[in-house]
Amino acid sequence: MKFALYVTFLSLYSLISVIHLFFCYRKMDLARRITKPLIFISLFLATLFFAPQFPLIYVACLLSAIGDILMIYRDNMIFFVLAGLSFIAEHILNMVSMINLLSFPFPWWGYLIVMIFPLICALAGYFISKKNPLFFLTTGFFSFHFINIVFAFMLIYAHLFLYGTLIYAGYLFYILSDYLIYHYTFIKKEKNEHFFVMLTYIIAQTLILIPLMFADFFVLA
Fold first, then answer.
1. Considering the chain, what is the average pLDDT of its residues?
2. How far apart are CA 164 and CA 168, in angstroms?
3. What is 55-110 written as a DSSP string?
4. Are the C-beta atoms of 212 and 98 separated by less than 8 Å?
């Protein structure tokens, strides 16, 4: 019965994702804007209903949905920054979820590194860009991708090979998706840019959140 619920949920999530990608490809802007947040709202509701024991994950899904809504208006710099902060909070929750899965205690100095590394990256981006505050945010944001990739490898080391491999692949797609957003927003707009951004983003979020969401199923797999 539980497996059947997984299949039902994944089918609904997949259907919404495919419909949204179709709207992106056909440049149906209004339909694209309406369906985009529904993708991860469905993830949020499914996690809240099927996996209430993992509050960090369904809050992360909710933050993804909020970030998606804000990114619809990413040409407005205020919305772009707020979306970035929402996604940073999501990555932090994903990181904590991975720490909770480790079979060994995470050392105190590890938390110190996790706090300092994004700040160092953000400051480096800020000064390299000649004190552009946007680069402070974007370089700090990208640093969380690399931190979570390290945690994915730690999961593999902790004998959670399936977890670690899926999450590692997810963050590689996340880096690609965020690079495309950066390229299309600040360098050059391209044909079907929304399609390629959302394709890589949906793949990334699926590979990251599904393993964390259904922990009991994947640990036993």
1. 84
2. 6
3. HHHHHHHHHHHHHHHHHTTTTSHHHHHHHHHHHHHHHHHHHHHHHHH-SSPPPHHH
4. yes
